[in-house]
Request: fold
Amino acid sequence: MAASSKKWVLGVIVLAVLVPLLQPVFPDVVSNYRLFLISTMIIAAIAVLGLNLLTGFNGQFSLGHGAFYAVGAYTAAILMDKLNVPYWATIPAAAIVCFIVGYLFGLPALKLEGHYLALATFALALAVPQILKYKWLEGLTGGVQGIVLMKPEVPFGLPLSEDQWLYYFCLLVMIVLFWGAANMLNSRSGRAMMAIRDQYMAADTMGIDTALYKTVTFGISAAYTGIAGALSACAIAFVAPDSFGIFLSIKFLIGLVVGGIGSLFGSVLGGIFYVLVDNSAQSLTQFIRNDLGLPFDLSAYTVFGVLLIAIIYLMPMGIAGGLYMAYRKLRGARA
Reply:
């Protein structure tokens, strides 16, 4: 990473750390609800990063990462509800469980490529919510009713609200995971992953163990998404099978494409996009109809779709790619 890029990253991290501390000064702007909303964006960015490691950096297409998100969320919820495990200890546990599940799923998926792999992962996303409802597992998963949890308490007597502490906890996990991903991608293993994405046959010819790298990448990708699911269980304090439907996997894919495939920064932008639009689309339709007085009775998904088409048309490489191209043009004009 270039020195200028490191400065930008450190500047953003410092700014993110300072945001909750501005709540006494700007209580309406930095409210607990907005901090919770930013926490959900952070969680979404981690989930999109997990999908990005698999699709953007290794070339394997998945429509089923909502299933790994659900496994991570239920792993954390069951550990907290049944075994009274501290919430912070459920994060590595969810990562391990999801890595194993992703690795085992990646083994038979080695024989699948392209749309066949997408169809297999799509089936996984459809199956997992139904499995969580299965009557023999109701004592563990809570069945259709799900599991109600307690929100994480602020440790060490820190003068923070629950939402402020949750924000810092999610931010810390995100920084560690993105740092780990950046170091992995800049290593020999990361270059091997991207070589498989770019030229599968050439990578195999050069001695890269493509089967091993593809299955391990599948496991790491699932682990990242499972950690996001565990954080979601801690943040929302509730899990239920219907929260992990197929559209959740589609949202992760939307965040990946809109943010920028093959870009760590794009994963952050993708998480922000899908949470922000998902939460504001309904308000925007009401504003168009009631405040502007326009005769359009649009659904929230219509607004979501229109924004998605507009961004893909204007920025085919995603928001991260569009910003990079704009920066290069601006730099060239100045030169």
